[in-house]
């Protein structure tokens, strides 16, 4: 329970509650070990540690319930250099290059995953052979895991 709420509960001034906390070893503020700013700093440190271990910035942000901007700021604060390319994000050109896919491959993958079309039908729509459609799908499955 926060110190102001405790002060109200016991009918004393907030300053008295904070003084009692400090006398028992609880420090508040940016350099303290308790309170909102200390909790935020611990969370930012855990976000940076997760990214350092290999999690993507967006994944770490979702895991800790913060925005990706906060996750990037946490990484900068603690000197962590996140990977720029997340192969699971198929939208960016850098991600496609990391996977070794040509620009039309993303469209092919969308057709494969979101429709009930066969390889031959997708090949006719995109102007490539059904074998090439299968190769693109196999390359994506090999790189990103089973679908």
Short description:
The chain contains 9 helices and no strands. With about 150 residues, it is mostly helical. The model has no long low-confidence stretch (mean pLDDT about 75).
Q: How would you characterize this protein structure?
A:
The chain is mostly helical. Helices cover 65% and strands 0% of the residues. It has nine helices and no strands. It has helices at 3-10, 14-23, 36-52, 57-64, 68-77, 93-99, 103-114, 119-126, 130-144. Helix 7 (103-114) packs across helix 9 and helix 8 (119-126) packs across helix 9 (130-144).
Multimeric status of the protein: single chain
Q: Termini, distance in Å?
A: 46 Å
* Radius of gyration over all CA atoms, rounded: 25 Å
Low-confidence blocks of residues: none
Structural category is: mainly alpha
| H/I helix tally | 9
Shape: elongated
Helix content: 55-70%
Mean pLDDT: 77
How many strand segments? 0
Secondary-structure element series: HHHHHHHHH
Structural domains: how many: 3
DSSP strand content:
under 5%
Largest sheet: none
Features:
single chain, 147 residues, mainly alpha, 3 domains, 9 helices, 65% helix
Topology:
Blueprint: H1 3-10, H2 14-23, H3 36-52, H4 57-64, H5 68-77, H6 93-99, H7 103-114, H8 119-126, H9 130-144
């Amino acid at each position: 329970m926060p110190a102001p709420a405790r002060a109200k509960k016991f009918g004393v001034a907030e300053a008295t509650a904070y003084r009692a906390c400090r006398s028992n070893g609880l420090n508040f503020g940016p350099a303290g070990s308790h309170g909102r700013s200390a909790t935020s700093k611990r969370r930012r440190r855990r976000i940076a540690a997760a990214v350092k271990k290999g999690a993507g910035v967006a994944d770490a942000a979702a895991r800790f319930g913060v925005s990706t901007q906060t996750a990037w700021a946490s990484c900068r604060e603690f000197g962590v250099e996140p990977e720029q390319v997340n192969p699971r994000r198929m939208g960016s050109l850098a991600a496609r290059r990391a996977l070794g896919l040509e620009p039309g491959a993303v469209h092919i993958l969308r057709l494969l995953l979101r429709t009930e079309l066969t390889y031959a039908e997708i090949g006719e729509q995109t102007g490539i052979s059904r074998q090439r459609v299968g190769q693109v799908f196999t390359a994506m499955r090999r790189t990103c895991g089973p679908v």
